[in-house]
UniProtKB/TrEMBL annotation:
Organism per entry: Dyadobacter luteus
Any one biological process term the GO annotation gives: pantothenate biosynthetic process
Assembly mode: Homodecamer; pentamer of dimers.
Cofactor dependence: Mg(2+)
Principal cellular location given in the protein's record: cytoplasm
Protein name (Swiss-Prot/TrEMBL): 3-methyl-2-oxobutanoate hydroxymethyltransferase
Location in the cell: Cytoplasm
Catalytic center residues: 190
Binding annotation for 3-methyl-2-oxobutanoate: 52-53, 91, 121
One Gene Ontology molecular-function label: methyltransferase activity
The protein's Enzyme Commission number: 2.1.2.11
Entry note: cofactor: Binds 1 Mg(2+) ion per subunit.
Catalysis: reaction(s): (6R)-5,10-methylene-5,6,7,8-tetrahydrofolate + 3-methyl-2-oxobutanoate + H2O = 2-dehydropantoate + (6S)-5,6,7,8-tetrahydrofolate
Organism phylogeny: Bacteria, Pseudomonadati, Bacteroidota, Cytophagia, Cytophagales
């Protein structure tokens, strides 16, 4: 039976909160374009992140730092046009919110107005509290991001697990509580020990969404191209591949090339 648009219930920040309260896990994936976002949304995930990982996945950069706010808005617009149900969250890119809360608000408002997305995500804790507070004061929902924060990769110098030491773990927990107190609707926990994820998830009432953070988070997120096996080079411990599309696509394209060269494509039945 086909599902009419009027039959689809939108996922909101309130729905995400209710899921944590019920103990129901939250499924999240990234998307960066119209076609893939439509597939992800129709499959039933609750939250779609238009991640600054587009810098790596779509543009081929080594880090997330080069992507601009204009590029993030382009990707977000493409995703929003396809989505009928999921909550769409957009990353504020590097340099668009750190150290200047007025610029942070301007960046968030641009993304919301020009893309039609439902929320924004910022990396960091106490050091960006002013930016988060100002964005929230304008009525824009904010998702936090703690642990491994890829925009700070040059400060860390490595993509290794964060918060293994007591001091960093204590700061992360403190930051998570601060994000809840100022009004964030959820927080991503990236590449931290599972026991810390459990502690954070039990210490705050807003949902936690893990990536490389173990099973104790209230939800999980992966980069779509990693989950589908399109990006074969990326093989972190936390990634489970659910398909090997790189191989399937390679074979399909190879078969097309073979048929073109052998003159079996197009056939008369495929001609006018």
């Amino acid at each position: 039976m086909s599902v009419h648009k009027t039959d689809i219930k939108r996922v909101t920040t309130h729905v995400i909160q209710e899921m944590k309260t019920r103990g129901e896990k939250i499924s999240c994936l990234t998307a960066y374009d119209y076609s893939m976002a439509g597939i992800v949304d129709a499959a039933g995930v609750e939250l779609i992140l238009v991640g600054d990982s587009a810098s790596n996945v779509m543009a081929g950069h080594e880090t997330t730092l080069p992507i601009t706010i204009d590029q993030m808005i382009y990707h977000a617009q493409s995703v929003v046009r396809a989505v009928k149900r999921a909550l769409v969250v957009v990353d504020l890119p590097f340099g668009s919110y750190q150290g200047n809360s007025r610029e942070a608000l301007s960046s968030a408002i641009r993304i919301m107005k020009e893309s039609g997305a439902h929320a924004v995500k910022l990396e960091g804790g106490l050091e960006i509290k002013d930016s988060i507070t100002r964005i929230l004061s304008a009525g824009v929902p904010v998702m936090g991001h703690l642990g491994l924060t890829p925009q700070s990769i040059y400060k860390f110098g490595t993509y290794t697990v964060r918060a293994k030491e007591d001091a960093e773990a204590a700061k992360l927990l403190e930051d998570a509580k601060m994000l809840e107190e100022v009004g964030c609707f959820s927080v991503v926990l990236e590449k931290i020990p599972s026991k810390l994820t459990k502690m954070v998830s039990e210490s705050i009432s807003i949902p936690t969404v893990g990536i490389g953070a173990g099973p104790e988070a209230d939800g999980q997120i992966l980069v779509l191209h990693d989950l589908l096996g399109i990006n074969k080079a990326f093989k972190p411990r936390f990634l489970r591949r659910y398909a090997e599309l790189n191989d399937i696509m390679h074979d399909a394209i190879g078969n097309y090339i073979k048929d073109v060269k052998s003159k079996s494509f197009p056939s008369m039945g495929e001609s006018y």
